[in-house]
Amino acid sequence: MIAGTEASAAAAARFKAVRDATLALCEPLEVEDHVIQSMPDASPPKWHLAHTTWFFETFILSEFVHGYEPVDPSYRYLFNSYYMGIGEQHPRPQRGLLSRPTLREIRSYRAVVDLRMQELLARATEEREEIERRTLLGIHHEQQHQELLLMDIKHFFSVNPLHPVYKPGAPARARSASHLEWLEVPGGLREFGHDGDGFAYDNESPRHAVHLAPFELASRAVTNGEYLAFVQEGGYKSPEFWLADGWAHVVQHGWQAPLYWKKMEGVWHEFTLQGLRQVQPEEPVVHVSFYEADAYARWRSARLPTEFEWEAAARDAAVAGNFVDSAAMHPRPADGSGLQQMFGDVWELTRSDYAPYPGYRPAPSALGEYNGKFMCGQYVQRGGSCVTPQEHVRVTYRNYFYPFQRWNFQGMRLARDVG
Amino acid sequence: MIAGTEASAAAAARFKAVRDATLALCEPLEVEDHVIQSMPDASPPKWHLAHTTWFFETFILSEFVHGYEPVDPSYRYLFNSYYMGIGEQHPRPQRGLLSRPTLREIRSYRAVVDLRMQELLARATEEREEIERRTLLGIHHEQQHQELLLMDIKHFFSVNPLHPVYKPGAPARARSASHLEWLEVPGGLREFGHDGDGFAYDNESPRHAVHLAPFELASRAVTNGEYLAFVQEGGYKSPEFWLADGWAHVVQHGWQAPLYWKKMEGVWHEFTLQGLRQVQPEEPVVHVSFYEADAYARWRSARLPTEFEWEAAARDAAVAGNFVDSAAMHPRPADGSGLQQMFGDVWELTRSDYAPYPGYRPAPSALGEYNGKFMCGQYVQRGGSCVTPQEHVRVTYRNYFYPFQRWNFQGMRLARDVG
Amino acid sequence: MIAGTEASAAAAARFKAVRDATLALCEPLEVEDHVIQSMPDASPPKWHLAHTTWFFETFILSEFVHGYEPVDPSYRYLFNSYYMGIGEQHPRPQRGLLSRPTLREIRSYRAVVDLRMQELLARATEEREEIERRTLLGIHHEQQHQELLLMDIKHFFSVNPLHPVYKPGAPARARSASHLEWLEVPGGLREFGHDGDGFAYDNESPRHAVHLAPFELASRAVTNGEYLAFVQEGGYKSPEFWLADGWAHVVQHGWQAPLYWKKMEGVWHEFTLQGLRQVQPEEPVVHVSFYEADAYARWRSARLPTEFEWEAAARDAAVAGNFVDSAAMHPRPADGSGLQQMFGDVWELTRSDYAPYPGYRPAPSALGEYNGKFMCGQYVQRGGSCVTPQEHVRVTYRNYFYPFQRWNFQGMRLARDVG
Amino acid sequence: MIAGTEASAAAAARFKAVRDATLALCEPLEVEDHVIQSMPDASPPKWHLAHTTWFFETFILSEFVHGYEPVDPSYRYLFNSYYMGIGEQHPRPQRGLLSRPTLREIRSYRAVVDLRMQELLARATEEREEIERRTLLGIHHEQQHQELLLMDIKHFFSVNPLHPVYKPGAPARARSASHLEWLEVPGGLREFGHDGDGFAYDNESPRHAVHLAPFELASRAVTNGEYLAFVQEGGYKSPEFWLADGWAHVVQHGWQAPLYWKKMEGVWHEFTLQGLRQVQPEEPVVHVSFYEADAYARWRSARLPTEFEWEAAARDAAVAGNFVDSAAMHPRPADGSGLQQMFGDVWELTRSDYAPYPGYRPAPSALGEYNGKFMCGQYVQRGGSCVTPQEHVRVTYRNYFYPFQRWNFQGMRLARDVG
């Protein structure tokens, strides 16, 4: 273990870096952009800026700074997301009705909390260990919101008929995607979950044994071109490929293609953070729901992997790839041979429901509401995407969404049974 | 008739005054405020600024300026409210999802259209008469949106837990309201509607005969204090006072008091453009629906007047009172004797459904969609309110809302049968 | 005035006749048919049988028979429609969830109440006048439910893919409809409403003066053939003909033709109480909403009459025509010249909202909930239909429905302004 | 393998027994009861009678009887539940709008199909094996609908204010429930799923290895008395015990206790197939959702078992207990020591989502729509209930419902981690 002061300095530096990164993501936005909430699942950028700050103020400053006076008492209510242990929350679907506090006021809120946090981190206190533990949690929490911020910006730009561009400039040139190989993975009894080394969320523990049958995994993610064949050959009109819930959803919502796809004069276009452009066949398909991924896989006589199959295959891969750090802001074609794209580009949908690992215990206090209470009706995704901060992800990292959700940067990799 | 040039100069001056007045109403707003749409009935301030401009661009510049190039072709779609004759519209409930165009861009849009309008009005053209007729219509249209702007601002501020203040400063001191008198109005056959002198909307015509029975009319509007008695004596829990539709609405929406009333620690407060304050008993009650007004009247063994009864009584009153021009932004207590408050303070709910006058003909072209197509299921209000521009109102002016709507500054004056 | 005993015998005979007529309408039904409620507006036949009985038990037997024991105390709640003064009601949309009491039990309920009513009517009591007044009201109430019964049967048969037939047999042969004439009706100040002679509902009073402008009225109702032209020439795709509310409804519900019209292999069919058959061009169009009638009239450069225009024109016509008494159960083509079909065939939609007449007072007690509390948002219809009992209708009779409702046998007659 | 004729005779006998049993369950019903659908999840008894018949007609008679003429061609559409491979279906929520075909007609449909089935089963044909395989599937299908029938009857009786009784007579006398013991189950790698001996649904295969950690399992189901403590100590008001989805559901639907519990004058009552009676503390709690079971377990510092934990513990238990065969129609108190009630009484909720076993393949043809397409968002239940036919259940049997559903006879048994 490194010495206290050094550790604190490192924590403070990391804290600053992450807080600055959030503001940097808002650079391309106008003041007006910060206000918009385009659906109940999403939040206005202004809210993300405030809520991540609220996290540090509520769980650290208010508890560890003697006599701490909140910047504004109303923020405890306004910027609480879902922590029942903290108290009531402003209703989620109404986050976009708040013009006040203004962006200026929220930036000022950030500045004050950052200052007090730096003071606290610089101070030697008995509770330093717990403070740093929570600061680290707050940093990971903020990284998640950096990804949400980009997801939410993309969504509200997409519903604007002016098709605003978040990041000007041509997308990475589309090369042809690498050939799809089926890689064999042997079965057997193995250990999965966090081994205790470094930071992890509580939902990655405890490490435990799972027995796998041997299976085959695709070498790369499904591409737009492959998915387009499904669309064009009537995939969205053929109930036989769909889960019953999925088909009901397709009919009710009139789905005909992935979210953000739009047919214009006979040509499929896709709204991206670089604006509206033609669908590039070589790029991984993105913004498909679990329902769509499952139907596509069945159409291909394949299936989605379980989260354990994914983790078994990814175990030896480096956590590297097209993350937000590349600034591409869009998945890129696979380019190579063997197992590719396990990390970055698109979150990979699995067929595993988001369930507690055997022996799972949520963290104590309101912080324990972070993960466990969402373990129902959602499906696990693995590996991170082109809008995930690289250092946020691990091989054991479990992301999760409902089977009908699509605004996350999620795609899929196929698996199939052996024999 | 005044000479052409003079008339044009007058039209130009009036145009400028009204356009400036709209911007002045936005002075107290932050950039963020301009984006909010807090319910489907309301629109963001930014949208009002653009739509009123769109009206001049679409119905005047595009038609009378040879080779006119729209400021932005997408605005024709984005800022069309409901004119089917012009083409499709951006869906009304999604006006609050548009961060772009920015406020800066919309102000620039206003500036350019204003300039081109001034140029056009200064030019002698054969179509001057039609141009001035439409300009006048556009001016009245913009005045309506000035009122809507204040209604909508009040609404979105009201749903913000921070209770923002639009206009700081204490409200007018509440004096005691004048005594309620019942004034007799004789019956008989009379003429109603616009007599052709000066501007009027098509829905005020043709002038026609209606037979009235004699009736009594209250000398002033119902006050908060009077309405509070209804609230406190169980008015919202007693189906016998309510229309069937009204009672169903009360139960479904949990209504317990007028919109913007809020009980805090046992005391009724009211959200106003000056912020949240205690309900002042002397002030006219405002933001009650037709349902509530009708129930209250029944509880008082009275009724609402018809629009013709109102017009008969108001015929000799001056169009003067507490309009937006007073900058009070809230209704004031009645103060005097005899017939008071017929104009200004609160729109007065009538029991008349909004129907075409016998022989009514809508204006030709898309401009004919202004009034006639709303003649179903709505009820007429008369006399203007504290947020109406004074010069916008006439004794024959017909405003109209659905019986469940409340965000308009509307109140009521009682009537009763004679004998 | 006729002597007491004679009057009572007459009342008893009329009571019996109407009660029998209700059961006769249920003759063609199976037990299973009595249970169905196919939409919240409709009620199961079983419920109509019970509710009309409840009316006599609640408002007469329970009040005028000393020590009366209700047949079943739970019926007071189960079969109350909307009389708040009587107490809570079983929720209207859940009437179709009640398999019990069985049809057998409800028929027995009817038998017992009928017996007790006959005993009461035969007895000389001090309250005879009030008893007979209420019996008469109960009789008219039951006649209304006879019509509702047929409306509701037609509706639930229509949603059954088996297209059950209520009344077998070919419909009246379709002759060609008579030529449409425009009949002039002079204007002036006239009296409208019930003159006090014979039974009338409270909503037909008081008689009062209304000033009419001269107008023209069509000699007969609009036919299927005429309406079909509107359908085929794009009437349901052209917002310019529609009220704003009407157009929104058309779009939301995908209306393309009157209720019960169904295009099969390119040919318009119509579901009737005789089953599914081709639309007959000569018959009056029926089951159009106020929205559709208004749009059709505008397309024809005409309009709907007001209820006073209708009453002025109908004043001298005999209350005769195709009522339920003819057993045709469907409107018939007009056949003659001059003013035809003012009574029977189809309820005639007017542009008058259902409002209280000047000086209107509802009846005292819970019976006063019969009419007044529905005076909001509905439109008046006049003249009765092919499923109305002939003796139920008068020239002053006001029926009323919401502008979007269609399951009533309602059609229209055009009017237009003069000059 | 037994000889063909004998086997056929056995199949025919079993077919007859199951078909008769369905009719026997309808004995206590009135004609009217057969029509009711009290919620979209439920179906009218008449529909169950027809649909189970449709299954034999569609999958056996139509395919294996040369020149078979369907009893009524419209039934193919009307009584298809969800088999897309067969064609369109009458919309599920509208099953309760069909008064026709009548009960008499449907009983006749059953009689004809039964006759043709018996003829077919008696005939020696080349396809005998497949016919018997499908007959067996149809028998199991019909047994499932016998359970659904009782669930649906209970539900529509429960919403009738008259509280009809399905099965008169006192419930089994409530003895005290046996003491709750925690039984240890060792961990390790074991095989789960159907071993190929006897009938099983496709979702029970393939048999495969799962690694379990050691755990403890409760000796009996949770009782009403135990659950009541949770209710009374504020369980339904404490978000901290609930999954996020569960809490949202509790708030939205105002849940305060299990389905069918009703507080009357301070005392909790429960609607049962024997009518309304006081909650018996010794009986197993029934009609709780997955959300409620999960919250209750958390409150008790325990959890639900996984389906594999349940199967591991049940492996050596006899498939015996309080099934529909006992005619109790309600769960009974546990009575004994050691592992009790694994079968019968209440379906036992597990924390396992309903997912395909590794290597799962649905059956070919439309019959393959039986199970696989529902593998999303539902949770597995094990062991059968007091309304399940005993011979329908196996140790590997997987039942499944959504986490918010409650009308199934489902309860829970607690588990907890070791160490």
Describe this protein's structure:
4 copies of one chain form a homotetramer. Chain A is of the alpha+beta class. The first copy, chain A, has 2 domains: 2-158, Up-down Bundle (Four Helix Bundle (Hemerythrin (Met), subunit A)), CATH 1.20.120; 182-417, paralog of FGE (formylglycine-generating enzyme) (Alpha-Beta Complex), CATH 3.90.1580. Chain A contains 9 helices and 12 strands. A 4-stranded mixed beta sheet of chain A has the order 10-9-8-11. A 3-stranded antiparallel beta sheet of chain A has the order 1-4-12, with helices on one face. In chain A, a hairpin with a 2-residue loop joins strand 5 (261-264) and strand 6 (267-272). The first copy, chain A, starts with a helix and ends with a strand. In chain A, 48% of the residues are buried. The mean pLDDT of chain A is 95. Chains A and D meet through strand 3, helix 7, helix 8 and strand 8 of A and strand 3, helix 7, helix 8 and strand 8 of D.
